[in-house]
Amino acid sequence: MRFKKYILYFFLIPIILITPPSIFIEILAREMPNVYRDKNLAIINNERQYKALILGSSHAYYGINPDLFSMPVLNAANVSQDLKYDHFLLSKAIENKVDLQYVILSMSVFTPFNDLDNGIESWRKYNYRHWFDFNPLSITDYFDPSYHSVFFASPSKPGLAKRIIQYAMKGPIESAWSQDGWGLDYNFSSSAENIYSKGKTAAARHQSHTFNKNNIQMNINYLKQIASLCSKNNIKLLIVTTPTYITYRSNLESERLNTMTSIISQISQDNNIKYINFLDDDRFELTDYADADHLNHQGAQKLSKIIDNLITSRVGMWRGSLRPGLSVSAPFVWRCLSSQAVAPFPHPAHRTGRADFPHPALGQDIMPSPTAGYGFGLANGSVPVVYGGTDPGSATTLSPEPYVSRITTGAAVG
User: What span, in angstroms and rounded, lies between the C-alpha atoms of 396 and 281?
Assistant: First the structure.
């Protein structure tokens, strides 16, 4: 049956794509502002002379504002982006001679389990083919019409058709992202009622059918490749886990949280990697969140300034210690993961009975530490309180299209 489907595609695709209406629709769909296309052009042209690259999923896309850094930074994160595409975009930047000094990689509780191509948002993989020239993974992909047509790839063809008509009739459309790739949609604060009601739902969704433990080794390999690329090109790699509100993080399973930090610990044993975990940093309040697992503009401003201060301060993170002169307000702390075991999270994560999760792909010696302490000893001998964290990969109420959210009569923005 599947073979017959591909045979049908083989004969129908050329006919469908060459009809005048289809050609017209496809041309307009490709001309409309598109966040993936803009990021691809930013990498290829590098007119801004980027020194840092932000990678990750929606938490980085909405939560880290490159405009607030003291160096040119491109936010190349995208909704539900997994480590495979993080690695691809980093490779593309290096191949295009982008002189990167830093890579900021957002790691999420779902990251070790995520495979975008085979998940519930697999339609997003076509964006990387259309706009970043990512090659299909198998010969059968060439018979998939979504790989050849932007319109076919859309999960909401009526919605895209409506936007195409609006674009054709009203002209330029205002982008929903900044010049350097930061998502602008979350410029609001949710009510306490909304965050409380949706936090548990979002946590459950991010830990259900979306994730597959069989993907752990695959993602470990991609993370190793990212670390290797950074090392070979003298790029400093900073892994971050962005803040989430208590109604989300308190419903996360310890098993998944510890799996994430165990993987980071394993990778950091042989690579010069730093990890900052912002899970319950109490500087982030209710008004800093657009929903229980995404920062709004105010929260993104806080987080971005903290990260910029860390990587650009004379007190460099990569010197092995956090020194008193570093201007970071309490109670923020950072983790330099080494060969030490990863400590468990200090928040009341949901217990499943398998919290230590010694997955074979990680090795038995990378289990979370059973000790009572939560901190790592720094070079000066102090043991700070450590903040754990997670970053869900997909937004709760995002538009299913990578295009636009606003239409204007003036010049296009971004």
Answer: 22
CA dihedral 60→118→155→32, nearest 10 degrees, is 50
Give the C-alpha separation, 223 to 264, whole Å. 9
Q: In the predicted model, is pLDDT for residue 171 greater than 90?
A: no
Structure token pair of residue 252: 């996360």
Strands (E), 300-360: none
The candidate with the shortest Cα–Cα distance to 87, out of 268, 229, 183, is: 229
Alpha-carbon separation of residue 414 from 75, 174, 284 (angstroms): 13, 8, 28
Question: Cα–Cα distances in Å, from 382 out to 196, 280, 346, 378, 385?
Answer: 36, 20, 18, 6, 10
Q: What pTM was estimated for this model as a whole?
A: 0.75
The single-letter DSSP state of residue 85 is: H
Report d(CA 9, CA 144) in Å as an integer.
7
φ/ψ of 55, rounded to 5, equals -125, 160
* Chain segment 177-232, per-residue pLDDT in tens: 999 999 999 998 888 888 888 888 888 888 875 556 778 999 999 999 999 999 99
d(CA 181, CA 73) in angstroms, rounded, equals 9
pLDDT at position 393 is 35
Secondary structure class of 28 (helix, strand, coil): helix
